[in-house]
Amino acid sequence: MLTAKELEDKGRQALAWVDERFPLSVLYKTHVSEYYAPKNFNFWYLFGSMALLVLVIQIVTGIFLVMHYKPDASLNAAGVPVAFASVEYIMREVPGGRFIRYMHSTGASMFFIVVYLHMFRGLLYGSYRKPRELVWLFGMAIFLCLMGEAFFGYLLPWGQMSGWGAQVIVNLFAAIPVIGPDLSVFIRGDFVVSDATLNRFFAFHVIAIPLVLLGLVTAHLIALHEVGSNNPDGVEIKERKDEQGIPLDGIPFHPYHVVKDVLGAVVLLIVFSIIVFFMPEGGGYFLEYNNFMPYDQLKTPPHIAPVWYFTPYYSMLRATTSSFLPFLWLLVALIVGLTWRGCSCVWIRRACLLVVAGAYWGFFGLTLFGFTKPPFDLAIAGIHLGLGLDAKFWGVVMMGGSVMLFALLPWLDRSPVRSIRYKGVLYKAILAVFVICFLILGYYGTQPPSPVGNVVSQICTILYLAYFGLMPWYSKLDKCKPVPERLTWK
Amino acid sequence: MSMKKILAAFGLGLILAMPVQASGPAAVLDRAPVSLDAASLQAGAKLFVNYCLGCHGASALRYNHLTQIGLTEQQIKDNLMFTADKVGGQMLTAMRMEDAKRWFGAAPPDLSLIARAKASASGSGADWLYTYLRQFYRDDSRPTGWNNVLFPGVGMPHALWELQGEQQARFVTRDDGQGNQVQHFEGLEIVRPGKLTKEEYDAEVANLVSFMVWMAEPGQESRRAIGWVVLAVLGVLALLSWLLKRAYWKDVH
């Protein structure tokens, strides 16, 4: 029997053995026990670790789902698609399967809730500002992967919304001039969403995207730990260190932030459990009612709505009608004009000219063609490429572009301060308008199209774009308060 | 600006910017008196097997799943099992798909999940089914001789007619204010009584709908029961982790 002391020595020897071959202790110190994070983290700083927790939940539940799920669109003896029936098999006959499935479906929505709040934290405290540009860009790439993961995964239950939602989104690619129609067939592997589509989406959902996602999460954390965390004051804690080189306002991640994040994790799990056990359908937002109907290629549902987390961008797509385009160009003209006046860099000026040329063909070409929709024919599409692109194409550009705009924030924000605590009333008001617009767009995206909804969505789309497009100017105009030298703490 | 003020401003902005949606002619659904007690579920199962399973399957269900609503395997074998040889067999319909397509124009859908699929902003799936099954009326212009107020032009005939009897729908032709003549539904009346009175029929439909709610997710009651236990455990864990956090953070100044 070993004494406690001998056991401790054995442990130390084992660790030394590993450390000579792999930097275990170094990694642990760099990323956990001697990673100094600001001590004034508030509520908003819990969402990063929560996102990691949800990622783990999704991967673990996903592994168990794959053991029983069958990506097969053929009909079984009862006339029900095998994929759809296998989900119900998991729900009814696999022990604990219903909880695994509900955790996975709830996890998808929770992931977006947590990530949207995590991103909003970035907007509040300027977490994207120098030197954290790459942290932010890796984060953006994670967000894109997440959207892909959600999109591919939503096809798998093979319900009506799965099939028709995928059909609508893949059809968007058909709006790309010349190659569009062929591209959409290439993505589906068929002319309609079918077994071929289901199998490839399954492959993307369970292996391709998760691999990329894990790599990006690692890069996001390495980049973060290299530059250090921002904080609600936007003060750089590394600028004030003690004799040992430890930031005066920093505390080690372990145990301080770990115990805090554990508390956050438990609160998250409580919310999670309330959904899983008491309202797994989330009022038709987390599991859409129509998706309990097997996908039927011949029966188009009257109202196809994407799941709630895509609806702000879906709204922007729908808002981009041909009569809306002139307003869009007006905003672009304003931004280009301001850029041209305020910037003498030759490359930026060339980019401005390029945008003007694009807008010219986009707008005037459309007028020439009386806002017609180009038939999906190679020759005519060729003419349209030169003379004007239809609104659907710009809608797709808008949908993709408005997501990507977040990536530009590090270079758009020219405010002398990072945190909203020291920004003036101008930025606070603009951020409030931006968030309200985002929520309204999300709401209208869940609704069937309506004239009122369309106009409100168009106004919100313009304001959404203006938040980013005009940031270089309003962030300079804003009257900021002086930033303290040290963190404010209690 | 404090956080509370910001949140209040957000809320106000949202309310101002969201005008009440002028929704279309939303279906008016009657509230289904769903009860998941064994008596209603067993009565509902009997109706389902006798009146629905002839045309519709419930393939996600096996006959022996009905032990969960308090029946023994022997009772199931003796009274309910018409379309399978083994008590572990799926509840499939006896009708062939090709026949169904020829007779009704479309194969009757599998009903395993219908109570979840029919939920909408107008009401729960149970409300929809409860309303639908009570609103069939005689319409000689339809191939089956039946029509439905909630689902106009429905392909399904009134399967429960011998219980409810035959109803006649009263429609009034009205001007909608824009010069169009529209049929306005005024009400239903029984023109030939069935085996049950109106109250008895409504109660039987409620049993049937309750069974369909149960069948759409047989584990729903135990799910909620387990949920309370999980929440209790997490509640204790939350308290402990809060105390732990407070203890550690005492020395952060």
UniProtKB/TrEMBL annotation, chain A:
It is a multi-pass membrane protein. Heme b b566 binds at H118, H220. A ubiquinone binds at H225. SUPFAM superfamilies: a domain/subunit of cytochrome bc1 complex (Ubiquinol-cytochrome c reductase), Transmembrane di-heme cytochromes. It comes from the Bacteria. Heme b b562 binds at H104, H205. GO terms for cellular component: respiratory chain complex III. It is found in: Membrane. GO terms for molecular function: metal ion binding; oxidoreductase activity; quinol-cytochrome-c reductase activity. Keywords: Electron transport, Heme, Iron, Membrane, Metal-binding, Respiratory chain, Transmembrane, Transmembrane helix, Transport. Residues 14-233 form the Cytochrome b/b6 N-terminal region profile domain. Its cofactor is heme b; heme. One of its GO terms (biological process) is respiratory electron transport chain. The keyword DNA-binding does not apply. Pfam families: Cytochrom_B_C (PF00032), Cytochrome_B (PF00033). The chain crosses the membrane at residues 43-66, 108-128, 134-156, 168-189, 201-224, 262-280, 323-340, 352-371, 391-412, 424-444, 456-474. InterPro entries: Cyt_b/b6_C, Cyt_b/b6_C_sf, Cyt_b/b6_N, Cytb/b6-like_sf, Cytochrome_b, Cytochrome_b_N_euk/bac, Di-haem_cyt_TM. Binds 2 heme groups non-covalently. Component of the ubiquinol-cytochrome c reductase complex (complex III or cytochrome b-c1 complex), which is a respiratory chain that generates an electrochemical potential coupled to ATP synthesis. The main subunits of complex b-c1 are: cytochrome b, cytochrome c1 and the Rieske protein. Belongs to the cytochrome b family. This is Cytochrome b. The lineage of its organism: Bacteria, Pseudomonadati, Pseudomonadota, Betaproteobacteria, Rhodocyclales.
